[in-house]
Amino acid sequence: MPKITIQNMNAVEFSADTKKSLLQNILDEQIDWLHSCGGKGKCTTCKMIVKEGSENLTPKGSVEKNFFELEKLKENERLACQCSFKHKVEEDTKLVICAADENKLPHIEYSAC
Prior knowledge:
Ubiquitin-like (UB roll), alpha+beta
């Protein structure tokens, strides 16, 4: 299974299910991750910065493209609720992400990204 590393959460690493969104994979690991709209793509609070492995993610859909056009997403940012791993990725595939600064939760101690 591919692995997700959250670099600014002390490099926590876990295996990901390619059939689920990245947000669902994160939540399945009992990791607190902001998602105000419930993962429906209506806000940008589940925004993540992709440091490594973006080529292994599904292409940006209309929701993410719209937020990009509105300048709410940068080129290296994705919404965790709107993307997942491509279905055919190698077992040793790694994705390195960071929680975006503006969406960090106050009760979590973050490390450098």
